[in-house]
Amino acid sequence: MDDILKVAMPKGRIYKQAAKLFRDAGLPISEDFEDSRRLIIPVPAARMEFILAKPVDVPTYVEYGVADIGVVGKDVLLEDHRNVYELLDLGIARCRMSVIGLPDWKPVLNPRVATKYPNVASQYFREQGQQVEVIKLNGSIELAPLIGLADRIVDMVETGQTLYENGLVEQEEIFQITSRLIANRVSYRMKNEAIQHLCDQLQKVIPELKFV
Ligand code: PRP
């Protein structure tokens, strides 16, 4: 193993928040690459390399050890149980996973529920004792109840703007979500000093969790 820490970062809107947190923790992360299309970003001054992955793929890169650590939403970890260590709640990218529907929604027998998170949704409704048919979609989940594909959806709510603009309402909150720092099990042992040092630095600047 080389001594460069390979970090799988979520590409897209979470990247800037994660990079800022690392910067606040004292790591020399340049802002130069924030709007670029580069997928591998060297951070030599911190003995790191960022791998910019699709958020849902971050745990895969970490589990297979091509990234030592990664930043990923708790939603992804709950949906796709990967064999990785969860080290820290980073307190960024806060949102919630909820059951959503039209305001005039009424319970029906064996309703259809559309979601990007079929495992989470199935488990939730099973625990509620409700039989549902889960339909997996990959995005624009809010469309499903609007055009009659599903009775309800399970999706992320951050500002609530998407729901508002599409006339949907949040009916039940399933859980709160934040980004987590995860580690490959072997890397955690082999690069423990570097990973532990990073955790210590991050812990000093993690925003306080204030869920209401
Ligand atoms: C996510 C999520 C909601 C929206 C919530 O979608 O699935 O649609 O953001 O954010 P808001 O409460 O601030 O409006 P994303 O933008 O990731 O796109 P997607 O439709 O491809 O899932």
UniProtKB/TrEMBL annotation:
Pathway(s) the chain acts in: Amino-acid biosynthesis; L-histidine biosynthesis; L-histidine from 5-phospho-alpha-D-ribose 1-diphosphate: step 1/9
Domain ATP phosphoribosyltransferase catalytic: 54-203
TM spans (from-to): none
Keywords: Amino-acid biosynthesis, ATP-binding, Cytoplasm, Glycosyltransferase, Histidine biosynthesis, Nucleotide-binding, Transferase
Catalytic activity: 1-(5-phospho-beta-D-ribosyl)-ATP + diphosphate = 5-phospho-alpha-D-ribose 1-diphosphate + ATP
A Pfam family per the record: HisG
Chief location: cytoplasm
Subcellular location: Cytoplasm
Entry's Gene Ontology molecular function annotations: ATP phosphoribosyltransferase activity
SUPFAM superfamilies, alphabetized: Periplasmic binding protein-like II (SSF53850)
EC number: 2.4.2.17
Function: Catalyzes the condensation of ATP and 5-phosphoribose 1-diphosphate to form N'-(5'-phosphoribosyl)-ATP (PR-ATP). Has a crucial role in the pathway because the rate of histidine biosynthesis seems to be controlled primarily by regulation of HisG enzymatic activity.
Domain note: Lacks the C-terminal regulatory region which is replaced by HisZ.
Similarity comment text for this entry: Belongs to the ATP phosphoribosyltransferase family. Short subfamily.
HAMAP family in UniProt: HisG_Short
Quaternary structure (record): Heteromultimer composed of HisG and HisZ subunits.
Protein name per Swiss-Prot or TrEMBL: ATP phosphoribosyltransferase
Organism (species): Paenibacillus eucommiae
